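Translate sequence into structure tokens.
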Amino acid sequence: MSAKRIARKLVSILVLGVIIIVVYFVVREVVSRRILNEAMKIAGQLSLTEEEQEILPGMIEKAHEKAFAQTFHILETVGERFEGEAYQRELFRGVIEDAKSRGLFELADKLVKLEKRTSFHVVER
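Result follows.
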């Protein structure tokens, strides 16, 4: 094999690798946004004070990042896989802990009650 041919193959492999990485991050971001939007809708069911309304979205976003990273798997099986129940547990745990650490115990109690009556269903593609 000539050096030129080897170089072309290496470049092809590199380009393919970059494409796979880009697709991974695009799919991950699309799914992440969709799940975060659903989490925000669920939180919208709560009767909140003005302060709680201002602070809760940021708390959910923060908890979402960690919960999503732990529960979204791509290329593990064909297509994407998301563990909805594990995500819900991690999301609520993160937001409830954050609320308690900020001294927002009423909000934490509301979130505990919301978690008990919420079931996070995700349809896999």
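Note: The chain has four helices and two strands.
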